[in-house]
Amino acid sequence: GDSDGGSEELVLTPAQLIHSLEQAWLNEKFAPELLESKPEIIECVVEQLDHMEANLKRAKRGDLKVSVHRMEIERIRYVLSSYLRCRLVKIEKFFPHVLEKEKSRAEGEPSILSPEEFAFAKEYMANTETYLKNVALKHMPPNLQKVSLLKSVPKPNLDSFVFLRVLERQENILVEPEMDEQREYAIDLEKGSQHLIRYKTIAPLVASGAVQLI
Questions:
Q1: Cα angle 198-203-205, degrees, rounded to a multiple of 5
Q2: Which tens digits make up the pLDDT trace of 127-174?
Q3: pLDDT at 7 over 60
Q4: DSSP code of 36?
Q5: E-strand stretches of the chain
Q6: What is the pLDDT of residue 2?
Q7: Any idea of the CA torsion for 155, 160, 166, 168, to the nearest 10 degrees?
Q8: Which of 34, 65, 105, 108 is exposed most, by the fewest CB atoms within 10 A?
Q9: Alpha carbons 91 and 99: distance in angstroms, whole number
């Protein structure tokens, strides 16, 4: 990337890059909804893996460092494939809602789908609609032959509770009451502290990187 002051591109060291991948992986693993797509991180990690593989080929056989590097490559591959698989599972589970969110996204808002994921979600939706028409709906009365996938496929449960670690101190986070007779209240999240909290309360903080799901 270009490192002059006017450049928008983020330049990460290999260690920071892998750390960013691991953060994205843990957040995706524990968030109930599909999070923003991170194509630039994926692309850079794949390049980094190719670079590491090339270095390994040049190393001397029997060098202890080779087996350490080989293990590191395998670990990064595992995190990367687990992250992408986790996203595909969510796309399959919530596909109409994911596509609706992508369609209604304001210009300039980050996409929640990579181009490949978008194509996959559209194909999955088309296949589901075709399957329903051919297998189930044609046997039903005409007035019941239209089905809204948005209504019939469950939405992500944003009220579910998540564990998090605070990376940047936050003040006055409004927390919804657990009981009807309680009122909503504000809390401060101290850096380094850990909390069990309703996901939708802190979803913007996950998106901004101020907290890490664990």
A1: 115
A2: 998 888 888 767 776 666 677 888 989 999 999 999 999 999 999 999
A3: no
A4: P
A5: 161-166, 170-175, 185-189, 194-198, 211-213
A6: 41
A7: 40
A8: 108
A9: 9
> Which residue has 């504000």 as its token pair?
186
Give the other-Cβ count within 10 Å of 26's Cβ. Answer: 17
Q: Is the pLDDT of residue 1 over 80?
A: no
Top pLDDT among 8 and 62 is at: 62
For residues 45 and 22, is the Cβ–Cβ distance under 8 A? no
144: phi then psi, degrees, rounded to nearest 5: -110, 10
Cβ neighbours, 10 Å, residue 112: 21
Cα–Cα distance, 92 to 89 (Å, whole number): 5
Region 183-199 average pLDDT: 94
Mean pLDDT, rounded, for 111-129: 95
Distances in whole angstroms, Cα of residue 102 to Cα of each of 9, 31, 84, 111? 24, 18, 18, 7
Query: How many whole angstroms separate alpha carbon 78 and alpha carbon 73?
Result: 9
For the stretch 59-98, pLDDT in tens is: 877 778 888 889 999 999 999 999 999 999 999 999 999 9
Name 139's Cβ contacts closer than 8 Å, sequence gap at least 6: none
**Residues pairing with 190 in the sheet:** none
Q: Which residues contact 11 (CB under 8 A, 6 or more apart)?
A: 1, 3
Is the distance from CB of 37 to CB of 111 less than 8 angstroms? yes
